[in-house]
Specification:
Blueprint (H helix, E strand, L loop, with lengths): L4 H12 L6 E5 L5 E5 L10 H22 L19 E6 L11 E2 L6 E4 L3 E4 L5 H8 L3 E11 L2 E10 L18 E5 L5 E5 L4 E5 L5 H4 L1 H12 L6 H33 L4 E5 L3 H5 L5 H7 L1 H14 L3 E5 L25 E3 L6 E3 H15 L5 E2 L4 E2 L48
Parallel strand pairs: 9-12, 12-13
Antiparallel strand pairs: 1-2, 3-7, 4-5, 5-6, 7-8, 9-10, 10-11, 14-15, 16-17
Length: 431
């Protein structure tokens, strides 16, 4: 059959009512046996959209595989079968609008902190939904789908919405003077150091939670408990669940801290400059791999990118080869390489001394002011524009990827995707 979503849905709907999906042998008193076709006996207990959305995802995977075999798009393999033991437990429901104009997914219908899903009814949620309810009531947002996921011992529902831009009062105002950029330097000793081109410090975060290193002792003990249990036993499954909850807690602590740092920068500054780093190359260093992975520099850049777009700001991506650390921010002299243990920069020409991270942040701001006309848009891979991105799936530049285009040294390739990504309001993350 064709590998399209509609064809697969029609095939599945025909199969789930057939005898191949389920049948019952009925024996009469006279010894005759008849076959009663039942199909999937439990199909009425599950919302039909669960099957349809899974089939649509299968169609996308098969289409991507066929395109890859034909030399189109990136290289992907054949879709793999999922099991309840290894695959994440999740399903998606579309928010269909009925003939009466009632949406399938509703928020705050019976109580403020509730979400109504088709086929499941009213569910209580932990986080406040006031902001989303206001946007829905004013017509500034529309719920597209709801994804229910089980991870770390908890169920979470994420609502994907088509939302309007932030209110004008929450967006950065157009500049009336020369552009003032703020350089953001990422590190391990000092997590974030932000400063302006004139040397004015803006933000400095020295103490960061280091969630992975803090929980390493507990995580090792839980990992040993998993390996000591017999494979396939219930005790091993329980031990693996405890380990998964520990990993989920570590990720939640890191994610909350990153949102706090990004909000502190984005809410107060409309022009940020951040250096593109080869995260994969840095992690290859076994001495720094654990600390760099715990810092999540790539996730920090991703959060800054979309938060700046929401508020109408700009994010300049500084070339990773720009010597921001060993350049003097006072006389612009490039000195020798500095070891990691040297935390103070000293210029050999003008004898200027400054903190290593502060000096790098100032140099990033200077680079952005000199190249502000070539500011790149991180998710779109091209110049900043307000045009809406086309629909459809395809490869996207990741937060840690770098290339000649990031420094503005090469023209935008033909067919590059531009524009503003769709905003997704989620109720299982801290914005």
């Amino acid at each position: 059959m064709p590998w399209s979503g509609f064809d697969l849905i029609n095939a599945f709907n025909g199969w789930k009512r057939s005898g191949a999906a389920g049948r019952v042998m009925v024996a009469a008193g006279d010894g005759t046996v008849t076959v009663k076709v039942t199909g999937l006996a439990w199909r009425g207990e599950v919302c039909q959209q669960v099957f349809e959305e899974a089939t649509v995802d299968l169609g996308r995977g098969l289409s991507a595989y066929a395109a890859s075999r034909g030399g189109r798009g990136r290289r992907v393999g054949f879709p793999r079968f999922k099991t309840k033991k290894r695959a994440p437990l999740s399903f998606r429901l579309r928010s269909k609008t009925s003939a009466a104009g009632r949406a399938g997914v509703r928020v705050g219908e019976q109580a403020p902190r509730t979400v109504t899903l088709p086929g499941m009814g009213v569910l209580k949620v932990r986080q406040d939904t006031r902001r989303l309810r206001r946007m829905l009531a004013k017509g500034r947002a529309k719920i597209v789908s709801a994804t229910v996921t089980y991870r770390g011992g908890r169920w979470a529902v994420s609502l994907t919405c088509e939302a309007a831009d932030l209110h004008e009062a929450r967006r950065h105002q157009p500049p009336t003077t020369a552009p003032g950029w703020v350089g953001v330097d990422r590190g391990l000793s000092t997590f974030v150091a932000a400063a302006r081109a004139d040397g004015t410090p803006v933000l400095r975060v020295d103490a960061w939670p280091r969630p992975a290193r803090t929980a390493m002792a507990h995580q090792r003990r839980l990992s040993r408990e998993v390996t000591r249990k017999q494979r396939g036993s219930h005790n091993r499954a329980k031990a693996a669940a405890r380990l998964g909850r520990r990993h989920a807690r570590t990720a939640a602590i890191r994610r909350r801290f990153l949102h706090q740092v990004c909000n502190a920068l984005v809410n107060t500054h409309d022009r940020l400059a951040i250096e593109t780093l080869t995260i994969g190359g840095i992690i290859a260093n076994r001495r720094l791999a654990a600390a760099v992975a715990d810092a999540a520099w790539g996730e920090l850049a991703r959060l800054l990118a979309y938060k700046q777009q929401w508020r109408g700001g700009q994010l300049a991506l500084v070339d990773r080869w720009y010597p921001s650390t060993k350049t003097c921010s006072a006389c612009r002299t490039v000195g020798p390489a500095m070891p990691l243990q040297q935390r103070t920069f000293t210029c050999q020409v003008c004898r200027y001394q400054a903190d290593r991270d502060h000096n790098a942040a100032v140099n990033l701001a200077v680079w952005a002011e000199q190249h502000h006309a070539q500011v790149r848009d991180l998710p779109a891979g091209g110049p900043v524009t307000n045009a809406r991105r086309g629909e459809g799936s395809g490869p996207r530049p990741r937060a840690g990827e770098t290339g000649p285009d990031d420094a503005g040294t090469a023209p935008t390739p033909p067919g590059a995707r531009r524009g503003r990504p769709r905003r997704a309001l989620s109720h299982n993350s801290t914005e």
